[in-house]
Amino acid sequence: MENYLKVLQFLIDNPSLDAIDHTSKVCVKTFKELHDQGLVEGIDASGDTSLSFEFLEPRISLTGRRFLAESV
After folding, report:
1. Could you say which of 19, 42, 56, 65 is the most buried, measured as most Cβ atoms within 10 Å of its Cβ?
2. Distance separating alpha carbons of residues 14 and 53, to the nearest angstrom
3. pLDDT (tens digit, 9 = 90+) per residue, 43-54?
4. Is residue 4 classed exposed, middle or buried when 0-12, 13-18 and 19+ CB atoms within 10 A define those classes?
């Protein structure tokens, strides 16, 4: 749960972020979990492999904002 909150807050603090991948300051696997739950949005540029995730134009969704507000 702490990782979820960290990623959501990171997206709010960095609204002009271009991508989230293995070089990001937050865990891309956690971002994918949030993406799968609809808490964040982004273009999945991972390709056919599940070994390396990459998301372009990552943003927190309205549902993610509500989740963060209720969890703080």
Report:
1. 42
2. 19
3. 999 887 667 899
4. buried
Q: Considering all CA atoms of the chain, what is the largest pairwise distance in Å, rounded to the nearest integer?
A: 36
Strand order in the sheet with 19-20: 19-20, 55-60, 40-44
Closest CA to 22 of 3, 46, 57: 46
pLDDT at 72: 78
**Helix, strand or coil, per DSSP, at residue 68:** helix
Distance in angstroms (rounded) separating the CA atoms of residues 46 and 44: 6
Q: For the whole model, what pTM was predicted?
A: 0.91
